[in-house]
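--- STAGE predict ---
source: upstream dedup step, 1 unique chain passed
mode: sequence only
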Amino acid sequence: MTPTNDETRLFAELIALTRTLRSPEGCPWDRAQDLQSMRKYVMEEAYELLEAIDSGDRAQLLEELGDLFFIVLFLLVLADDGDLFRPSEVLVNTIAKMKRRHPHVFASAEADNEQDAFLSWESVKRKEKWKDAKGSILDGIPRTLPALTKARRIQERVSAVGFDWKEAGGALRKLEEEMEEFKAALEEQSSAGTHAEIGDVLFSLVNVARLLGKDPEAALEQTNAKFRRRFSEIEKHMAESPHPLSLEEMDRLWDEVKRKEE
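--- STAGE serialize ---
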C-alpha cells in the first residue's frame, strides 16, 4: 500500500515544522537540544505510548503516537544538523533492512505462521551480525531494557538457534527446581545466594511465560495496576477509620475488594 498524497504532504510538513523550530527564528529550547539531551524524552514518550496502548483509549493512543513520532523526526533533524546523516539515509537504510529481513514477503523464502516468520527474521539478523564472525546472537539487545523484557529477548534469541525447551512443561519443571534452590538459600541464610536464586527464579518464570505466549512485562504491569486499584480501596477505609487499621483488618478489606472484583 503506497502512501496517500495527504500522508506524503503531512510528513513533509512535519519535517519542515521541526526544522523551523530548530532555526534561528524558532524556539530557543529546541535549538539547545542534542541527541544526548533528548534521550530522556525518548524513554518518557515510549512509556507514555505503552500506557496508552494498555488503556485502549483511542484519543490517548492518537496523541501519544503523535508525540513519539515527533520525537523520532526531531532526532532525525538533530542528526542532520550535526552532519551525521540525512533523514533520507535513515529511510533508505530502514526500507532495505525490512526487505532483507522479510524474505518470505520480498523474496522466495516461505513462512506459514508467526513462529516461522520470527525465526526467519532472527536467521537473517544473525547472519548480518555475524558477518565478521566475531558477534554474538545476544549482541544488540539494549542494556537499558527492563529486566523482564531483556530476559525474554535473550531467551527468544537463543531459541532461534535451538537452545530452548520443546514445551512449557520443561520450563515449568526448571522453575520448580529453581524454587527449591531458592528455598535452600533461604535456609542457609545466604544473602548472596538468595539474591542469585531470586534472579534464577525470575528468569525461569519468564521462560514459562514466553513458552505460553505471554509477555511477562505486560503480565506484571497488569498485576501492578490490580494491586494499586485494590489498595486504593483499603486507603479509603484507612482515611475514614478513627484508628490505624491492623494488618488483620487490612487483609479482611483486601479480601472483600477481591471478592467484589471477581
